[in-house]
Design brief:
By secondary structure, the protein is of the alpha/beta class. Helix content is 46%, strand content 14%.
């Protein structure tokens, strides 16, 4: 219960890395504000309540500062504070070579993944600064460090998240706010709905490479990991919990890989 009396806000908490992170934080005693654009977000909150922890599920589109303001105000009305922000929400667009990319898809990906992270951080940071202590944890990707053929918008957005993370950490350091840390997590390919669902990463890579989703899953994707497997949501959640805890008080401005050896820096 190392996060007892802490309030954690997790975006994209309806499924995947976000849901796993919300549940893992709750297991360590945190009160959870589970946020998602999807209407089923209350399901995550209900699971956490069944664990005996406090939680609410709130609907908000992170591309809308107005919706974010309402959501954050509701969270403060209910729980009084926010100590931990986990910026997990994001999308993975249809894959294409850059010169064939759909302009609207490209802009939407940047708007959700990068500007959405900016919107959320801008809204919550004054509350964390007021507390004098807290954590911001951003979900980037190994695509935020490496190139990602046929996924230029996603790759650019995740590189941007790392830049945002490092800059915010430096700004807090300049102001002497040394008990607030900001870090990014860079997952490898995850065993999540974004990858496995119909129309997800498996289907998109199969379409681009002219093969099948089974070959992508069993032959192609494992080659990018030294561990020859997908990363489980719980593995990302474990890193979220660590970075949220006092044990990680000396870590800030970092982009930490949880990728099975797919990246080395």
């Amino acid at each position: 219960m190392q996060l007892k009396n802490k309030v954690a806000l997790v975006t994209g908490a309806q499924r995947g890395f976000g849901k796993a992170s919300a549940i893992a934080l709750a297991r360590e005693g945190a009160t959870i504000v589970a946020v998602d654009k999807g209407k089923d977000i209350e399901g995550t909150a209900s699971e956490i309540k069944q664990m005996g922890q406090k939680a609410i599920g709130l609907i908000a589109d992170i591309t809308s500062p107005e919706q974010i303001k309402i959501m954050v105000n509701t969270a403060i009305d209910v729980f009084g504070r926010i100590d931990i922000l986990v910026n997990n929400a994001g999308i993975l667009p249809k894959r294409s070579f850059l010169w064939e990319a759909d302009d609207n898809d490209w802009r939407k990906t940047i708007d959700v993944n990068l500007i959405g992270t900016y919107n959320m951080t801008k809204a919550v940071m004054p509350l964390i600064i007021k507390n004098g202590k807290g954590r911001v944890i951003n979900l980037s990707s190994i695509s935020g460090k490496n190139g990602s053929p046929t996924s230029s918008a996603y790759c650019a957005s995740k590189h941007g998240i790392i830049g945002l993370t490092r800059t915010l950490a430096m700004e807090l350091g300049l102001l002497g706010l040394t008990e607030i840390t900001v870090n990014a997590i860079c997952p490898g390919v995850g065993n999540t709905e974004m990858v496995t669902e119909k129309g997800g990463l498996l289907d998109e890579v199969a379409r681009i490479t002219g093969t099948t989703r089974e070959i992508v899953l069993t032959k192609q994707l494992p080659q990018v990991s030294l561990l020859k497997r997908l990363i489980e949501p719980e593995e990302i959640a474990d890193m979220v919990v660590y970075l949220a805890s006092d044990a990680a008080r000396g870590i800030t401005g970092q982009a930490i890989n949880v990728c099975g050896g797919a990246a080395f820096y």
